[in-house]
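Hey L., structure's done. Input below.
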Amino acid sequence: MNTILRKSVLGIAGLAFTGGVFAGPVAAYAADTTHAAKPVSATVQQGDKLVPHGVQGNQSRIELNDEQTANVKAIIAATKKAGMDERAAVVSIATALQESKLENLGHLGDRNDHDSQGLFQQRPSSGWGTVEQITDPEYSTTAFLKGLKQVDGWKDMPLTKAAQTVQVSAYPDHYAQWEQQAADLVAEHWNK
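Output:
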């Protein structure tokens, strides 16, 4: 699907998310699991190091359990398999931190009035795949990365803009708060 058509389809699908319908249940689900840190620069890959990218803002951080850490490793493995670099993994992990706190969410019942599921809260009704597919961390990451590859200049834009172009969230600026933790996780797990 070409970029213009994908943006149009995602833009129409995004209308369903307006008014907080999309992020409201997810935000309520994990609102008490984060704490703000001081503003820091986010990071990207340059040579052998992750270096500041220049995105400023308050950063959030959560402690990860074994399941969440396994999901980080799955995102990194899928990113490598897709032939993409550490920056793609940072964008992916930050997005999954915002969407699900790195938990592979099934249907949330009363807290979820739509069909968003998995690490990235992708929707079968929006064409992301079947429930079984989007709750598979490798598949959902690969689907996210395919969307990211279609974003012209994604490597050079702020993480939150790249993530928003793929996800079409009602809260487009919320991805930025996870960039430092995502970069730290990539730095920790990329070469393991």
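Confidence is low (pLDDT under 50) at residues 1-52. Residues 66-81 form the longest helix (16 residues).

-- N.
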